Amino acid sequence: MSEADPIVFVVDDNRSVREAITSLLASIGLRAETFRTAEEFLKAPRPEVPACVVLDVRLPGLSGLDVQRALQTKVDLPIVFITGHGDVPMAVEAMKGGAVEFLLKPFREQQLLDAIQRALARQRSQRQWLAEVGELRRRYESLTQREQQVMMHVVAGLLNKQIAARLHTSEVTVKVHRGRVMRKMHVTSLPELVRAAERLRPSATGVYPADTNV
Amino acid sequence: MIDDELRTDEIENLRQRLEEAVETLRAIRSGEVDALVVRGRAGDEVYTLRTADQPYRALVEQMQEGAVTLTVAGDILYCNRRFADLVATPLQRVIGGSVRRFIAGEDRAAVDALLRAGGGKREGCLQTADGTLINAYLSVSPIIGDEPVLAMVVTDLREQAARRDAERRARGLLDELADRERQEALRVARLNEESLERERRLRQTILDSMADRYYAVDKDWRYTEFNAAAEAQLRALGRDPTTLIGSSVGEEFPSIMIEDVFRRVARAREPATHEHYCTALGEWVEDRVYPGPDGGVTIFQRDVTERRRLEDELRKTAGYVADAEALSHTGTWAWNPTTGRLFWSAEHFKILGLDPASVTPSWDLAMRSIHPEDRPFVEGRFTRAVSERQAYACDCRVVRPDGEIRHIRSLARPVLSVSGDVAEYVGKIIDVTERVRADEALHRSRQELAHVTRAMSLNALTSSIGHDLNQFIVAIMTNASACLRWLSRDSPNLEEASAAMGRIVRDAGLIGDVIGNIRAFLEKTGGVRALVNLKDVIAEVRRLVDPELVRQGVVINEAVADPLPPVLAARVELQQVLLNLMMNAIEAMEVVSNRPRILSIRAERVESERGPAILVAVEDSGAGLGAVEADRLFDPFYTTRPRGLGMGLFIARSIVESHGGRLWAIPNAEHGATFQVTLPIARES
Fold first, then answer.
1. Predicted complex: ipTM over 0.90
2. Contact at CB, A24 and B470, closer than 8 angstroms
3. pTM for this structure?
């Protein structure tokens, strides 16, 4: 993952608000890129750097929630909503959609900065997690088919003897496979292997664990 | 008995009638009389000041006397039909010629002298076209204010002459009689019954030839004598003339309450005149009572009903005019620029709050009555009207002595003399205070209504405007925080800090603008009219409406021609109209979800049927108008919204119309409707 300077995208139809946020972020060393409408933002290219978006809910044309839906397939851009119209259903929808924060205008600058930091942090950890999962997958894919079978049985809690019986082979052979699996998966204990297998489960892939420090 | 006094009285009476006629003429010309009722064959006709020369003409035409206006040299400027008839010459041939042509040769020099003297009275002979001589009484007097013009009234003395001939004869006979009496006195012993009888008969003949009724009563109020005219009257009254002699006045006519007069005359030996209404005859009679030779009185009576009727008419007319003036709060004035004489009617005094008994009308007093603020304007207008011989009209205020202010409308026009000079100005002042106050109240309530609807339309925008202001507050707070952070760095970045401060100042200014805009919009009054550029008004309204447009997802197209000539208008009122139209357009598009919501606003110069104008069109892509709706849209209290007051378009139209413009709606070919406003372009002056 890249450690280049993060970017904060700001989408608000009010020029004064855009300028103010840009200056605020600059004062703490954060780079901002601003857009007047959702359409402009969605069309703009996004560099491969840590980023988040500060999004006004009410925009001319497509709304902030429309942007959130459009972004849902791309998991790597956390959203901080800011809005002058604080209605509950909108906030609920935004949070369900995975928004980091839903700030009511006018907000304290610290609230905004905290939310942005949290969004960037979440993106960082998400990227890290994704990198780890990718590594595990590569390791898993380096296993032979037999080794993968043995690994699944081990993780399911079967004894070597039971595995040998299932695979119609000798207990010694199972032990050899098991040793190779441990080595190839870079684990030293059974619990470690179980955890790796858990993270490789198809249902877990692509879903980022809930932020714990909210 | 018949003597010199009688004749003198006869002539005096005639003179009085002439003077009355002259006085009537003078009063009409000087404006003392405002209207006349003339009883003609076609019934009563009222001639008012509106056609001031009409009653004058009518009266002149109705006169029994001939009337002529003429120059000092004797050239006839105008004459009435009666005069033309007298001289048996067609009217059009009389006017323009010399009056001398109609004066008998021996009288010409005398008439010339009258004309040169500028007035006077005398008897003279008229000469008609066929050479007939008519004995007439000529009265010449100058027309007031026009020194070179004279009026001559010609009274036909032929009838009177006949009577006077008789009188003259009688006088001669009386002289003779007196002589005889003297002879008889000398020959007392030789009383000649026959001669006396003849004298009595002669006397009777004379008396009977008189048109006046003659009665004589002795000191016991018993009738001793009467003439033929009196006999006719007695018959008309159903009395037997043969039994009258010897009966007393009281017995015969108990209803006649004139004994006082008789007694006074008998006692004082001084003649007296008495006028009374005779019910039985249905006529007004004038009794001239003379002391009789035997301690009683002689009475000459004549029918004066016609004269009384004319007098009554005049009195009544004056009363009607006064009533009409009081009812219509209209005062009349007439001003003669030559003599400076100013006449005010009673109502004129009343409107100015002045007492006719204690002040004299004067131009100075009139000017002092006018409100100081209006005085220069009125004076200027009047002076210009006089110098240009034009009619004039103006509205102004007068301040009464007690400080009360009245609004008046003043109208006047010049009355030109025959020579084309301004003989006088006649004018009306109409007290329009009540109407002005009603207008003001109407204006106020319309403004209040407009204010309420403005407040309501702004109310609809509250949340959008609030959002807009909130944005600026966010920007200001964020800039302030940024500024602090730039300053509290280890090495403070003053450039960024001051940039942030600059943005704060700018945004605070924008907030001020929004609030100022709203405040101006919520002003109670619509504000004074000034030259306004619609481009600015559109921009101001857009500042209010734009947040709402964003909120409603409406796209706006603006096409305002540049440059755009200004209109004369109350700015806030125009803002209200445009705001109303734009808000209506936005609302009309709330239901639209399957096509873009587009609001177009267009402003350009056009030629309307009332001249060059600015057209502002507000077009939406909303639900459009039904046929019924387009009809009723501008009715008060017509609304399609559950919470609308339904006054918006009604007010908008009344505002536009008060600016001399029009407001109407047309359905669009495809979607929505277009509201169009035209406002006249302000003239250069």
1. no
2. no
3. 0.46
